[in-house]
Amino acid sequence: MIRSLDRNIGRVLKSLKDQGVDDNTLVIFTSDNGGANCIGVDGINKPYRGWKATFFDGGTHVPYFMRWPAALPKGQRYTQPVSHFDIFATAAAAAGQKLPADRVIDGVNLLPFIRGESTGQPHETLFWRSDSYRGKREGDWK
Question: Considering the entire predicted model, what is its pTM?
């Protein structure tokens, strides 16, 4: 699966390059959860505890890579918690579009944080919920 994922991401990036739009295209790679416990791999999400379907960091701490050579500094690392719901606000900003004003948008435009133009955390509090199972992260406490 890793080899397939790697090859197919390579195909997407090559296609963007072949079309001449790779430098000015925001590409986001992320995952929906940590590794699954059912596959029997000890420490699959080390150094984090937990796995897919848990709210421990092993289930919620996932890769979140952004690539946009024309607009983001190469090799920049941002260590504060972000969320998938930030993709919409970030993509809208990248496209030069305003967010809808007729509803609340939970996501945050991450571009100023990645560029170092904004300091602090995009989210002071994050929540997770699945049926009656709930989790909350506030600051450095979860």
Answer: 0.89
